[in-house]
Design goal:
Layout: H1 19-40, E1 42-43, H2 45-49, H3 51-60, E2 67-70, H4 77-85, H5 120-134, E3 140-145, H6 152-161, E4 168-174, H7 185-194, H8 197-212, H9 217-227, H10 229-235, H11 240-243, E5 247-253, H12 257-267, E6 273-279, H13 287-291, E7 298-299, H14 316-330, E8 334-338, H15 348-353, E9 358-360, H16 365-377, E10 381-387, H17 388-391, H18 395-403, E11 410-414, H19 431-436, E12 442-444, H20 449-461, E13 467-470, E14 490-493, E15 500-505, H21 508-521, E16 527-531, E17 533-535, H22 539-546, E18 550-558, H23 563-573, E19 579-585, H24 594-600, H25 605-617
Parallel strand pairs: 2-3, 3-4, 4-6, 5-6, 8-9, 8-10, 10-11, 11-13, 12-13, 15-16, 15-18, 18-19
Antiparallel strand pairs: 1-7, 12-17, 14-16
Helix pairs in contact: 3-12, 5-6, 8-9, 14-20, 16-18, 21-25
């Protein structure tokens, strides 16, 4: 029997299938996603949970006129498969292949680029208003998870969307999870709604019946709605979403295709903002992912039969978590904060060992930073662990609620630098530059585990005000046998000559060390100045560099406003008359492996050698 999926090239092809065939198609899609992620890594559990919902969306809505905006976008693999990218799905998250997230440059079916949480309602409302202003036909649908509802931007969008005068559909994909299990009042609120579906079903049935009555249906519906509003408030609590201006319907079984299709058909005919509450099972159809959806949220390649990942063992994240536990065991002022990233940031052990001092704020980086400021103002030593790419969302709070007040907040910036396959939206290439703009802040960038421990101890106990320790994803790179960090603001490495100085920090130190022998073979002697503290730069490090005739700065971060540009300024201020060359990142970095990206950027050992030898030939 031929696969049904082979017959689906575009969403219109779904119209040819019966309901029973659609269920078979969902099974085939799941099989394809599991196989693809097992090879490439990626987001598995979230994608398996929305297969039926995605099929129903593309069955009901027009691919020509209607727009679907995905929140976070890590659950859009089925969407990609159904929108002309079925055969290319095997390339997802690989160099030159499909992005792991919706991308407008990749397909006309992707309405909005996305990779961060809680953006879909605002973006979809903007698209809906653009349609209204330009007179374009079509519906706009925002699909947001219950985890993303912990982010404040979602409520800003809901606040405005409830006043929209036309059809606007928000689908709440409720699987009780973000990456870890959801926390906070919204999680409890949604749990309450799940246990009270009878009233909402009855409410929807009555409204549907009244609207179908000829002549008197809609007027009677409006009259009864007004007359019963007081009674409803007495007997039932209306939902938050209704209070914000939405018609709320649900909760519905997100794996019941027939019901989903009927609900979506009805929703698109309501000339008003609508919120559909859909219950799904994260990891649906793959037992290992159903049993442990957190572990299978974002995963490296794995064995389908056993569920075991190819990537395991110690990492910067786990070492950070262990070190923080050791410090917290000696100092009861230390608190740990994360924004829905307990596992990813290595804080699972801390949460178990010090539950009263562990705080998961949900996907709410702004709140996490200001909350940390409040803890610090109250005499605690908060350590706020956030991925570099997500810390961007808390920039204002770092300035306003921490740095200006000079409170003692320490940031653990995970996934700093190039992160690889997740691509443009997740690269941690901006934190060094934007933190460098903030007065009186201290930033460390360790390259090895021992430096990580030293940096955190200094950040917590030797720095005043705001401090940060940034470190890359995964494990340390090459370390020369004769290199030993002294715990100072900078280190030097290499004994040959003083004509050329290579200045760098973090992971790139490993590549610079590898480059030394290749340069020596070409008759170029150099030494390396390794910045351990990148903000503020130690002026002795500047003086060391100024002694060389040529200075090459290599930076795994954005060039504009970065540490390299600032180092150049400091050299100039010191009266340096030699040559300064800067190699840093000047644009968004697409998805590829970390090593492939650094190679393409000219920031690996080969790139360092090529940059230096090219300048020497001039």
């Amino acid at each position: 029997m031929d696969n049904l999926l082979d017959k689906i090239n575009f969403p219109e092809d779904l119209q040819k299938l019966s309901l029973d065939e659609l269920y078979v198609l969902c099974d085939e899609i799941r099989e394809k996603i599991i196989k693809t992620v097992s090879n490439n890594g990626g987001h598995l559990a979230s994608n398996l949970g929305v297969v039926e919902l995605t099929v129903a969306l593309h069955r009901v809505f027009s691919s020509k006129d209607d727009k679907i905006v995905w929140d976070v976008g890590h659950q859009a693999y089925t969407h990609k498969i159904l929108t002309g990218r079925r055969d290319a799905i095997s390339t997802i998250r690989t160099k030159g292949g499909l992005s792991g997230y919706p991308n407008r440059m990749e397909s006309e079916y992707d309405a909005f680029n996305v990779g961060h949480s809680s953006t879909s309602i605002s973006a979809a409302l903007g698209i809906a208003n653009a349609k209204l202003l330009s007179g374009e036909p079509g519906h706009v649908i925002s699909l947001i998870g219950d985890g993303a509802l912990t982010g404040g931007l979602a409520y800003e969008g809901l606040n405005n969307a409830g006043r929209f005068k036309k059809n606007f559909i928000v689908i709440l994909n409720d699987n009780k999870m973000s990456i870890s299990r959801n926390v906070g009042s919204m999680a409890r609120y949604l749990a309450h709604i799940r246990t009270k579906p009878g009233y909402f079903r009855a409410k929807g049935n009555v409204e549907t019946a009244l609207n179908m009555l000829p002549h008197v249906g809609k007027p009677l519906h409006r009259f009864l709605s007004k007359m019963t509003s007081v009674l409803k408030q007495m007997l039932y609590n209306s939902t938050l979403f209704e209070d914000m201006g939405f018609y709320y319907y649900g909760p519905f079984d997100g794996h019941d295709l027939g019901k989903l299709i009927d609900v979506l058909e009805n929703a698109k005919n309501i000339n008003h903002p609508v919120l559909l509450h859909v219950l799904t099972c994260k990891g649906k159809g793959y037992p290992y992912a159903e049993q442990n959806p957190g572990a299978f949220h974002g995963i490296s390649s794995f064995d389908i039969k056993t569920g075991k990942s190819a990537s395991s063992g110690e990492s910067f994240s786990s070492v950070f978590g262990n070190n923080l536990c050791a410090l917290a065991d000696q100092d009861d002022r230390i608190c740990a904060i994360t924004a829905a990233m307990q596992t990813g940031t290595g804080l699972t052990g801390f949460a178990k060992q010090f539950p009263n001092r562990f705080f998961d704020t949900g996907i709410a980086e702004e709140h996490a930073v200001t909350f940390a400021g409040g803890l610090a103002a109250g005499g605690m030593l908060p350590v706020c662990a956030i991925y570099s790419t997500f810390l961007q969302r808390g920039y204002d709070q770092i300035i306003h609620d921490a740095a200006i007040q000079k409170v003692k907040v320490t940031f653990a910036i995970d996934r700093a630098g190039v992160v690889g396959e997740d691509g443009e939206t997740h690269q941690g290439i901006f934190d060094a530059a934007f933190l460098n703009t903030i007065p009186n802040i201290t930033v460390y960038s360790p390259a090895y585990y021992d430096e990580l421990y030293t940096s955190f101890h200094q950040a917590l106990y030797q720095c005043e005000g705001v401090s940060a320790v940034r470190y890359p994803r995964g494990k340390p790179m090459f370390k020369p046998f004769d290199f030993e960090s002294r715990g100072n603001a900078y280190d030097t490495y290499g004994k040959d000559g003083v004509d050329l100085a290579i200045v760098t920090y973090g992971r790139l130190f490993s590549f610079a060390c590898k480059a030394l022998s290749s340069l020596k073979a070409r008759g170029i002697s150099a030494r390396i100045i390794k910045l351990n503290r990148i903000t503020p730069v130690d002026m002795d490090a500047v003086a060391e560099a100024a002694a060389a005739k040529k200075v090459f700065f290599f930076e795994e971060g954005i060039q504009q406003g970065g540490i390299g540009e600032h180092f150049s300024y400091l050299l100039s201020q010191s009266g340096y008359q030699g040559e300064f060359h800067l190699r840093a990142i000047t644009n968004f970095v697409p998805h590829a492996t970390m090593l492939q990206s650094l190679s393409a950027l000219g920031l690996d050992d080969i790139g360092i050698v090529n940059t230096i030898t090219t300048e020497y030939k001039k």
